Amino acid sequence: MSHHGEDGPGTRLPEGVPPLRPRWLSRMIRVPRLPGHGPWRHRLNKLFYVAAVVGTGVSLWAYWLTYTDVRDRAASEDEIATVCDGLVDAEAAMDLRGGVVRASAYADDKDGPGVGAPPDSCLVLRDGEQGGADRLVAVRVRASDDRESPEVVGDSIGHEPFGRREYRDRRPEDPTRLADHAEPRPLGDGRLGDYSDNSVTVRASCASGKPAVGLEVTATTQYDDVSDEDRRILAGLARGSAEKAAARVGCAARLQPLPERLDTPGRALGAPKAARASCAWYGRHLDTAGRGRLPDRVLEAPTGGGSRKETCLLAVSPAGVRAIGPQLTGDSRKPAENALGSSPWWMRTASFFDAGAASVAYDEYRQYGYLEPGTAGGEKDHGVWWASSVCDGQPALHTLTVSFTYDDVVLDRLPALFRAYVDDITRRRGCTDVTFPEPSAFTARR
């Protein structure tokens, strides 16, 4: 039987097999046809032609942008490598902040790092489209005992934990809720170095070569909101720079690998009773001595058996300040008012081990006063007290810093508090020959 139409004219199907598409369905389906040779066909051809030209132009423009970005990034990496004398991994530096295309660098080596490995420091800047630039990352190299750029303790401008006043024009509701930066946390067990939310320090102990004490490389981001990925890149950059600097001066150092994870450091202060790491001693001290006018907040970090730096930040909350205020008299009440705004009450304990103990100082308008290992004392005008010990055969310094508007408020509590801290950390680290400051070091000066 012959069927026409839907299966094609003259198409013969086996007996009993229905057409592939019923005729009634064909009437419902109309396949659109392009216009013939009339004006509509001409307009459609022009539209296709314009679309093809535009598409080609867009593709070429995208290719050109990609090409210029790759070219500019390569040129920037070459500049960073040259200016930083090969010390900084340019590719890693430009991977920060989600990746940048154009960057430049500035090196500061007029003083030198004291180890014959220039540059002393190198700053990488992100170049903007309109010619401006903002800081991206700074890398600094120093000898571990370098007294030209010491570890600064004491209450001095630029070293306050709540010193970044984003609220200068308004009174903050809670100035001690968050610290400017996290306290340093150990990389692994601490022998490799430490890190915070925006910086990583890697230390290389030299088995031979100069300097015999070792090198310290610190990479610090120059922007806020550092991501976990940025911190991972920063750690790799710091370790790579430490290896290069050590090789350059003949420092035979074997660096440990970076830990697989760098847990995000916190900046929020919590209750002393919740402290389990570098501030655990303080919670125990309050259990036996009571709080009184002492801080009611802590910011701690994990402890590491090989750490060469360990700190604990303490602060007084606004509620704590208001509770202390009525106990004060005369001129002492003004600091309590300021503590609710621009001058929060805080104190910090910090210990330095090995070569780092030789370069600890308080800062007085860039004139450093060094704390000598093996000694103990206090400088109330600078808000710092220190004790000494010997740990693993190496000198160690243990310090207490108190903010300048707070020291008179708690001066009578400081001797017992400082002793509790030093007793705890020297016991944990197996230190001997502990030397404490004389009681007179905690006496108010008239």
Describe this structure in words.
- With 446 residues, the protein is an alpha+beta fold.
- 27% of the residues lie in helices and 22% in strands.
- The protein has nine helices and 19 strands.
- The protein has helices at residues 23-28, 39-83, 90-95, 228-248, 280-289, 318-324, 333-339, 407-410, 414-428, and strands at residues 2-3, 11-12, 103-108, 121-127, 133-143, 151-153, 185-186, 193-195, 199-204, 215-221, 297-299, 309-315, 346-353, 360-364, 367-370, 377-379, 384-391, 394-402, 432-435.
- The strands form four sheets. A seven-stranded antiparallel sheet has the order 3-4-5-10-9-8-7. Strands 11, 12, 13, 16, 17, 18 and 19 form a seven-stranded antiparallel sheet that branches. A three-stranded mixed sheet has the order 6-14-15, with no helix packed on it.
- The N and C termini lie far apart (124 Å).
Set out the fold topology.
Layout: E1 2-3, E2 11-12, H1 23-28, H2 39-83, H3 90-95, E3 103-108, E4 121-127, E5 133-143, E6 151-153, E7 185-186, E8 193-195, E9 199-204, E10 215-221, H4 228-248, H5 280-289, E11 297-299, E12 309-315, H6 318-324, H7 333-339, E13 346-353, E14 360-364, E15 367-370, E16 377-379, E17 384-391, E18 394-402, H8 407-410, H9 414-428, E19 432-435
Parallel strand pairs: 6-14
Antiparallel strand pairs: 1-2, 3-4, 4-5, 5-10, 7-8, 8-9, 9-10, 11-12, 12-13, 13-18, 14-15, 16-17, 17-18, 17-19
Instruction: Note the quaternary state here.
Output: single chain
Order of helices and strands: EEHHHEEEEEEEEHHEEHHEEEEEEHHE
Number of strands: 19
> What is the rounded distance between the termini?
124 Å
Major beta sheet summary: 7 strands, antiparallel
Radius of gyration: 33 Å
Q: How many individual helices? A: 9
